[in-house]
């Protein structure tokens, strides 16, 4: 399972509904999640006229707040429909996909988000019109919680749990017809490769993306990367470094003060 969005272009980070061969990111080399993370859902962003734009993954962190990536909520998105079934694909068309979900809400993007450098403030939320009651929700990390990973000791054998909906395989453009896209929630356990990067500063993590650990790909954008096996969201799937969803996956950290402060305004 690969849960990854491409750094190549922000537009590739989310799947255009009208163009099935151009999805967002999905988990590759992973396993079916089943009921493992029922608070992780699939969203379809819509414009002001209700036209579907793209799909992304995300996490309910309260009865009314769905956490995702900023490039999933950016303009022209005005609202989003959300599904929580482990297998949304098998329910089409009776489940209303991509027009009418199990929940609906208004999209918001971090105020400092810039689509030309989306990876710097790549966080967004959907605030639901009606609350969704669940036994458990995803949890936000503590302030600067991931800074402890800067030491080699902190990085040793550290794994994350990546969850999302999307592509299982991605190919170069010449073979794009082979892309395998579904809408099934999957899970992988990538390892930490690097905390912080030269182009994102201290705002991102790089995680493994291979057949052994699994990783992220188009359609998994906005999906959670939990700390270990917990429900604490270290960050959201943000970017990848190539068009085949191979190598490493980029995660936008949500443990920084500006992100936690902004998110708190919706939780309060």
Keywords:
268 residues; mainly beta; Thrombin, subunit H; six-stranded antiparallel beta barrel; 3 helices
Written description of the protein model:
With 268 residues, the chain is mostly beta strands. The chain has one domain: Beta Barrel (Thrombin, subunit H). Helix content is 7%, strand content 33%. An eight-stranded antiparallel sheet has the order 2-12-9-15-16-17-14-13, with no helix packed on it. The N terminus is likely disordered.
SSE topology sketch:
Elements: E1 15-16, E2 31-32, E3 40-46, E4 52-60, E5 65-68, H1 70-73, E6 79-83, E7 103-109, E8 124-128, H2 152-155, E9 160-164, E10 167-169, E11 180-181, E12 186-188, E13 192-197, E14 201-209, E15 224-227, E16 233-240, E17 247-253, H3 257-267
Antiparallel strand pairs: 1-4, 2-12, 3-4, 3-6, 4-5, 5-8, 6-7, 7-8, 9-12, 9-15, 10-11, 13-14, 14-17, 15-16, 16-17
Strand content: 25-35%
On the 0 to 100 scale, the average pLDDT is: 83
CATH C-level class is: Mainly Beta
**Annotated CATH architecture:** Beta Barrel
* Assembly status: single chain
Uncertain runs: 1-26, 170-180
Strand order of the largest sheet: 2-12-9-15-16-17-14-13
> The biggest beta sheet, please?
8 strands, antiparallel
- Structural class designation: mainly beta
Please give the radius of gyration in angstroms.
Answer: 16 Å
* N-to-C series of helices and strands: EEEEEHEEEHEEEEEEEEEH
User: Into how many domains do the coordinates divide?
Assistant: 1
């Amino acid at each position: 399972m690969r849960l990854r969005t491409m750094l190549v272009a922000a537009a590739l980070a989310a799947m255009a509904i009208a163009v099935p061969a151009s999805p967002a990111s999905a988990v590759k080399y992973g396993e079916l999640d089943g009921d493992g993370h029922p608070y992780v859902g699939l969203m379809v962003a819509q414009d002001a006229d209700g036209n579907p734009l793209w799909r992304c993954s995300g996490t309910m962190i309260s009865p009314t707040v769905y956490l995702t990536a900023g490039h999933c909520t950016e303009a022209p998105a005005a609202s989003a429909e959300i599904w929580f079934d482990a297998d949304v694909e098998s329910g089409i068309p009776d489940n209303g996909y991509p027009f009418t979900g199990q929940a609906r809400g208004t999209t918001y993007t971090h105020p400092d988000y810039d689509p030309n450098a989306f990876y710097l403030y790549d966080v967004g939320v959907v605030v639901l019109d009606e609350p969704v009651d669940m036994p458990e929700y995803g949890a936000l990390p503590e302030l600067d919680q991931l800074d402890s990973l800067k030491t080699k000791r902190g990085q040793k054998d550290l794994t994350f749990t990546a969850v999302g909906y999307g592509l299982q395989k991605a190919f170069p453009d010449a073979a794009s017809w082979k892309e395998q896209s579904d809408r099934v929630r999957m899970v992988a356990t990538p390892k930490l490769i690097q905390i912080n990067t030269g182009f994102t500063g201290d705002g991102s993590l790089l995680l493994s993306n291979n057949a052994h650990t699994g990783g992220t790909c188009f359609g998994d954008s906005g999906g959670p990367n939990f700390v270990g096996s917990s429900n604490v969201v270290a960050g959201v799937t943000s970017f990848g470094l190539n068009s085949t969803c191979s190598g490493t996956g980029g995660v936008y950290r949500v443990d920084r003060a500006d992100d936690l402060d902004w998110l708190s305004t919706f939780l309060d």
